[in-house]
C-alpha cells in the first residue's frame, strides 16, 4: 500500500480515509493483511497507522514496516 497526500491537504483525514478504504478493499478481496513501509522520521504517519490497528513488524535505521490484519 502506498498513500501520498499533497502537503496542502495533510491533517484533513485524507490519508486516514484512503487507508480505511484500502483495508476494506483488501478484506473484500480476501487478503489476510496489508503491509507498508514508512520512513522512520515520519512520526505523523506512524501515529495514524497505529490508530488504525497497524503494528510494527520490523524496522531499520531508515524505515519501518507496518502490518495490519484485515480479516473480519
The parts where pLDDT drops under 50 for at least 5 residues are none
Measured distance between first and last alpha carbons: 19 Å
User: What is the helical fraction, as a range of percent?
Assistant: 25-40%
Kindly report the name of the CATH homologous superfamily. Answer: Gcn5-related N-acetyltransferase (GNAT)
Mean pLDDT, to the nearest integer, reads 91
Instruction: Record the strand order, biggest sheet.
Output: 1-3-2
- Whole-angstrom Rg: 12 Å
Q: What name is given to the CATH topology?
A: Aminopeptidase
Pairing-aware structural class of the strands and helices? alpha+beta
Q: Given the structure, what is the number of helices?
A: 2
The top-level CATH class is Alpha Beta
**Extended strand count:** 3
Q: β content, as a range?
A: 25-35%
Major β-sheet profile? 3 strands, antiparallel
Amino acid at each position: 500500500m502506498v498513500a501520498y497526500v499533497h502537503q496542502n491537504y495533510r491533517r484533513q483525514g485524507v490519508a486516514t480515509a484512503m487507508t480505511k478504504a484500502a483495508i476494506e478493499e483488501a478484506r473484500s478481496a480476501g487478503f489476510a493483511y496489508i503491509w507498508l513501509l514508512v520512513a522512520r522520521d515520519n512520526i505523523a504517519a506512524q501515529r495514524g497507522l497505529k490508530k488504525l490497528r497497524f503494528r510494527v513488524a520490523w524496522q531499520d535505521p531508515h524505515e519501518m514496516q507496518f502490518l495490519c490484519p484485515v480479516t473480519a
